[in-house]
Write a structure and sequence with these properties.
- The complex is a heterodimer of chains A (about 150) and B (about 270).
- Helix content of chain A is about 40%, strand content about 20%.
- With about 150 residues, chain A is α+β, with helices and mostly antiparallel strands.
- A four-stranded mixed beta sheet of chain A has the order 1-4-3-2, sandwiched between helices.
- Chain B has seven helices and nine strands.
- Chain B has helices spanning about 1-5, 70-80, 130-145, 170-185, 205-220, 225-235, 245-260, and strands spanning about 30-35, 40-50, 60-65, 85, 90-95, 105-110, 120, 155-160, 195-200.
- In chain B, strands 1, 2, 3, 6, 7, 8 and 9 form a seven-stranded mixed beta sheet that branches. In chain B, strands 4-5 form a two-stranded antiparallel ribbon.
- In chain B, strand 1 (about 30-35) and strand 2 form a beta hairpin.
- The radius of gyration of chain B is 20 Å and the shape is globular.
- The N and C termini of chain B lie far apart (about 45 Å).
- Classes of the chains: A alpha+beta (about 150), B alpha/beta (about 270).
- At the A-B interface, helix 1, helix 2, helix 3, helix 4 and strand 1 of A face strand 1, helix 2, strand 8, helix 4 and strand 9 of B.
Chain lengths: ~150, ~270
C-alpha cells in the first residue's frame, strides 16, 4: 500500500514547501501516475533493440536486471529480448550469492550483463532492497555479480 | 554544505528539512528546471547526495516512467530512495539499503504532467510521447549540470525500470542514453561524463516481450491453454503501447483468469 502513503505525504503543503515543489499551485492533487499522460501517449517505437546495438558498439556499460516474480514485464520477456540481440556469451548462466544464499542468477554477454533477483517483483528495490543495493554496487564497479 | 550551497547560489534549492524526517548524514536539493520556456514546461528533480565520506561518488539519474509515473513516487519513496513513508502518511524512516550510500541519486519526474513537473500548455498532457520526453529530459540534464557544476565530468549513469516506469511500456532510459551519447560524440572531455545505463524489468522489444510475457503467464499457471493460444495469435505482432482490438480482447480475457493478484509481484498480498 506504499503508493497510498506517498500520495498522502506529497500532498501535504508543508512537504511541498520543503521540497520547493508545486510552485505554480497546480489545481490538481499530486498523484503517483498521470492517467491523462498514460492514456494519451503518442509516439512509442516497438523496439529499443537498435539503440542497444548502437550503445553496446559504443562501449558503454549496460546492465539489465529482472525481478523473477514480476508478471507485468516478466523475466522470460527480458530473456527473449536480450537473446534477440544475438550477443556472444562471455560468462554463462550462474547463481550469484548474497551471504551464502542464492540472490539470483546472472549471465554476462559481450557488451551487456543480465542479472535476475530471486523473489523480487517489478520494483526490485522494493521487494529485495538488500540484493538491489548489491546489484547497484556491482554495476557501478563494473564487476560481475558474486559467484560465491 | 550550507556554505557551499550558498556559494553556488543553490541555497534556495537545498532541502534543509523534510516534515517527519529522521536525522541524516547527506544533503538534498530539489526544484525545477525549465525545459521549454514558450510552452512553460518545467521538470521537477530531487537530488539525494551521497554522504561526504563517500564523495566524490558517481551521479546516477533515476527514471521511473509509466509512461506518466513519478520517480519521486516510486524510485525515491518505495524503492532505492533514502526514505520510506510510514502508513501515517506523515513521517519517514531511513531505508537501510538506500542507493545514495554509494552514489548521488538524481530523481527526475518526466515528462511535464508527472508528479510535480508541470506545463502551462494543457495540450502537452495529451500529446506526449517518447521523442519529446527524451529531448526534454536531455535539455533538463544540460541545464541541471549548469546549476550543479560540481557534477560536471563526474562519472554519470542513467538507471530506470520498466517504461523506465510502472506499466507495460519502457523506453526512456535507452533513448535518453542515446541522446547523451550522440551529443557527446567527438567531444574530447564531455562534461556529461556518461558511462552507461542499467534497467530493470524493462519492456525492450514488443514482439519478444509479448512472447515471453504470455509464456510466463502460462507456465506460472495464471492463464488457460486457450487464452495462451489466443494471446499469441492476436498480440505478438502488435504494438505494446497501442494494441489492436483483438489483442485487447485477449488481454481482457487473461485479466479475468488471473484473478485478484498483484501482477507486479505474484506472491505478494494485494493492498486492500
Amino acid at each position: 500500500c506504499t503508493e497510498r502513503y506517498s500520495t498522502e505525504y506529497y500532498n501535504r503543503p508543508e512537504v511541498q514547501r520543503a521540497l520547493h515543489a508545486n510552485v505554480t499551485g497546480i489545481n490538481y492533487t499530486w498523484a503517483t501516475c498521470s492517467d491523462i499522460l498514460n492514456d494519451n501517449w503518442r509516439d512509442s517505437p516497438r523496439s529499443v533493440l537498435p539503440i542497444y546495438h548502437e550503445l553496446i558498439a559504443a562501449g558503454l556499460r549496460i546492465w539489465v536486471f529482472s525481478g523473477d516474480t514480476d508478471a507485468v514485464v516478466p523475466l522470460t520477456a527480458t530473456r527473449y529480448s536480450i537473446d534477440a540481440l544475438g550477443l556472444p556469451t562471455t560468462v554463462s548462466w550462474y547463481p550469484w550469492y548474497d551471504a551464502m544464499k542464492v540472490g539470483g542468477w546472472s549471465q554476462v554477454y559481450k557488451g551487456l550483463s543480465l542479472v535476475t533477483v530471486r523473489g523480487a517483483g517489478h520494483e526490485v528495490p522494493l521487494h529485495r532492497p538488500r540484493q538491489a543495493l548489491i546489484l547497484f554496487k556491482h554495476f557501478l564497479q563494473g564487476k560481475p555479480m558474486p559467484d560465491a | 554544505s550550507a556554505a557551499a550551497a550558498a556559494a553556488s547560489g543553490l541555497a534556495g534549492e537545498r532541502v534543509t528539512y523534510l516534515p517527519g524526517q529522521p536525522p541524516v548524514d547527506f544533503d538534498m536539493y530539489s526544484g525545477y528546471v525549465t525545459v521549454d520556456k514558450r510552452a512553460g514546461r518545467s521538470l521537477f528533480y530531487w537530488l539525494q547526495e551521497a554522504p561526504a565520506a563517500a564523495q566524490p561518488a558517481p551521479l546516477v539519474l533515476w527514471l521511473n516512467g509509466g509512461p506518466g509515473c513519478s520517480s519521486v513516487a516510486y524510485g525515491a519513496s518505495e524503492e532505492l530512495g533514502a526514505f520510506r513513508i510510514r502508513p501515517d502518511g506523515a513521517t519517514l524512516f531511513l531505508n537501510d539499503y538506500r542507493w545514495n550510500k554509494v552514489a548521488n541519486i538524481l530523481f527526475l519526474d518526466s515528462p511535464a504532467g508527472v508528479g510535480f513537473s508541470y506545463t502551462n500548455t494543457t495540450s502537452d498532457l495529451y500529446d506526449s510521447g517518447d521523442k519529446r520526453t527524451a529531448h526534454d529530459s536531455y535539455k533538463f540534464l544540460v541545464k541541471w549540470f549548469e546549476k550543479f557544476p560540481q557534477y560536471k565530468y563526474r562519472d554519470f549513469y542513467i538507471a530506470g525500470e520498466s517504461y523506465a516506469g510502472i506499466t507495460l511500456l519502457w523506453h526512456y532510459v535507452p533513448q535518453l542514453s542515446q541522446l547523451v551519447y550522440r551529443n557527446n560524440k567527438g567531444v574530447k572531455e564531455p562534461l556529461i561524463n556518461f558511462k552507461g545505463f542499467m534497467v530493470g524489468n524493462a519492456v525492450t522489444d514488443d514482439y519478444h516481450d509479448y512472447i515471453g510475457t504470455f509464456e510466463y503467464w502460462w507456465n506460472h499457471g495464471i492463464i488457460s491453454d486457450g487464452t495462451y493460444r489466443l494471446l499469441n495469435a492476436s498480440c505478438v505482432h502488435d504494438s505494446g503501447e497501442h494494441p489492436a482490438p483483438a489483442c485487447l480482447a485477449a488481454l481482457n480475457a487473461s485479466t479475468v483468469e488471473q484473478g485478484d493478484i498483484d501482477m507486479y509481484s505474484l506472491y505478494t498480498p494485494t493492498c486492500n
